[in-house]
Structure formats: C-alpha cells, structure tokens
Predict the structure.
Amino acid sequence: MTSAPTTTRVDPGTTVLEVSGLNVDIRTPAGTVRAVSEVGFTASAGQTLALLGESGCGKSMTAKAVAGQLDAVAHVEGGAVMLNGEDLTRISARRRRAISGVDLGIVFQDALTALNPVYTVGTQLGEAFRIHRGLSARAARVEAIELMRRVGIPEPESRVDAYPHQFSGGMRQRILIAMAVALGPSLLIADEPTTALDVTVQAQIMELLRRLRAEENMAVVLITHDLAVVAEEADTVCVMYAGTVVEQGPVDRVFATPTHPYTKGLLDSVPTGSERGGDLNSIPGSPPELKDIPPGCVYQDRCPLARALCRAQRPDLRETTPGQFAACHYSEELLAAHAPAVTPTDTTATEARS
C-alpha cells in the first residue's frame, strides 16, 4: 500500500511559481558578470511553461536559481522566487531541504551522473520516503517498486535491486522522473529531460511527463532548445537570450505571430519543407559572452531590425498582443508583417458595408 502525498493540492490553473526581477551573478577571474538579468515568469498548476533559447542563454542558470542549486561561484543578487506563496530566495538551508522533493522536484539532463552509481535504484528511490515520511527500509522499498511500475519500468520487483548502469538511458531517465515526483511536488523542473536519447525514447519520456503532470496537477517548467517539443508540450513559453527574457506568452500565439526578432529567427531556422541539398536558414553570429553583453538591446548584434535606438536604450518587456510580451522597440513591424494584406476587393466590400 502506497502512502498518500502530503502536498497541498491546488486547483488547475492556480499560480504555483512566480519569478520576478531575478538576477544571478557569477564570479569569474575577470570579475563578476551577470548571467541572469531581471527574469520573470509564472508557472501554473496542471500546465507546462517552457524556457526556450540557445545554449548559454541562461535557461539552466535560471532553473538552478529557482531550485537553490547554484554553483558556489554563482549567487542570487536580487528578485523573488515565490513557490506557493513562499519566497525561496529568503528561506534557510534547513527549510530548503524540507521542501525539496515535497514541493519541488527536479529532473536533470544526464540521468547517469544524477544517479549514484554505488547504490541500487531501489535505495535511491526510497530515500525520499525514509527522510520525509519516516518509513522503514522495507516500506520504502515497497514504495520504490510502485514508483518504478508507475513510470513504466518492466518487472520492477526484480529490478529494484539493480544499479543505475544496469539500465538503458531511457530507463534511467524514467527512474530520475520517478524520484522527482515520488512525493507529489507541486512544481517539477525538467532540464533538457530528453538529452542524448533517441527520438522514440524522447517521445516516451515526454508522454510520461505529460501523464504525470495531469495526474499530479503539477506545474512543469521545461527547459529546452527544441522548438518542436515546446510546440507539442508547453502551454506558455518564455524565450530567453543573453540571460534576459525577450518574449513570452501562450505558445500558439508566440509561434504564430512572434513579436521579437530572436523568436522569429528561431522559428525561421526550423527546416520545414526544405528540399534535400537546399540552404537552411539560421541566425548569423552567436550569443554574446556574459562579459561582453552590450548596452541597449542584448540582441542588437544579430538583429536585422537593429537601429540607433537599439544600441542606446534597452527595451522593456511590454505587451504586444493580449497576453503576449516582447522586449523590442520595433515589435509593431513584426506584427505588421504577419497582418493579412487587404486587397482592393476587401477594401470595396468594407466601404460598401459602412
């Protein structure tokens, strides 16, 4: 018999995580640099928020700051991370340990390094129940078997005493997901959960996360650079570049009518309908080094719309369409490009109706 989760349940759509004004600094030999700047977003129960962007844009650093797992050289310099109304930037280490796993679960990129190679998977899966629920080793083993069954690992009774290296990459990832959701957290952070897995296994892992999200009514923060995964899995998207949020909103709206040139560049780079041997679109250049982020717009060096204003003034994140926000001085030009053209016939019909 499995023990019931003690986490307080909330209604679907209720805000679980609210990040505002988050700043993260990193100490380097050349001085302190800002890796995350004024980042803000919300994640709601039963929904998935995707953090999207190229490598080095601050996605994982943001997630580590939320989870309280920043490296020793990094620290939160300002902002708030509200989880179920509690600011995680102001709690003690003891309180952080108390909510880890219970209110917040994490799925890392590389399951083989995240799992301890010298302990069986049953021991590692049962640890949360022993620490947070006070279960005996025998009772925790029963819970571990049930978790393995729940995430689709065959013959869990015989494999609960196996070690991580005895499982395939996909099975190890399932074990890591089982560990993250063992105590029914209200927030799950999934950092590139399908890295290094083949396409079929990727689809299975994402389907598992989708099912668990619905069963547990969790808020999921999904970190990825895969636009197809975002389109398929996420409800809202937060596009990051050079440690800042450049666009956010509902996925269908952002992908249909991007209002920031970086988002548009990412979408245009997807090779849909390209002929074999044809040229592929790409964004020229690469994201700036943290120590070389320019004043003004962070995207100016790669942006086809960049002008003098972009070099002089950093744009604020502002609403461009209802519920959609972008940090661009010239979002209206992108919106105009998506607006349907009015033909002479349409104009005549409009005048006739008026």
About this structure: Confidence is low (pLDDT under 50) at residues 1-7, 342-354. The first strand starts at residue 15 and ends at 28. The first helix runs from residue 59 to 67.
